Amino acid sequence: MPFQKRTNFTFPLDGIKTFAAAEGLDDFIKKLEKEFFAEVTFKCQYRMESEKTDLILDMKCNFGLTESLHHFSTGNWGGFSCDPENQEVSSSFNRAFAELSALNKGTIDISELSLHFKDTSIIVSRTNDHSIPEQLGAIMGMASEHFVYITKGLTEMPYEIFVPVFEESQQNGVAPENGQHSYFEHWGLYFEADTQHDVMVYSLEHKTMAKEDFFLLD
Question: Theoretical Cys-Cys bridge with 3: which of 49, 130, 165, 205, CB 3.0 to 4.6 Å?
Fold first, then answer.
């Protein structure tokens, strides 16, 4: 069953203007750097047809993934906290983004977030509007819960983790019946294999890996 990796935009390149300006963006970046102990760089892309701005964020963190997940679980990294009633995970990332969105009257979103740890990178692609800030806490929670499995029983760390990857039937922007793509079905894992790359698809439901082809969106 072939899969696609959503690392590129679903809209065509014409009609997009790259620039580096948005109301409150400097404060947003400073908050992320403080809360995540990270160096943050970004790109802005303005979509003229919708008059909205997409952010592409790169966060270079000072920890390995294991240490970051430990600080995540204790609430000392990223301002993550879990509501015991509904089990939803909130974060300083989402709160900072909500302020940024309000300043820009809802015309800004995050299309891709790359978390670069000392031993791996987690690349999160947008699945729906505001999906990255709203779901980042849950994604990190799943990374912690499935850590043993995605590291092959703690024997090998993938050097890149793509969240999520989709079945071939969902490529070209075809949404599922409920209109929502899930972050918690399949992830793409890249491992070093001698001089080659070992590409695996991890099923969160079954906690299993399989070798699959990826489809890239141009």
Answer: 165
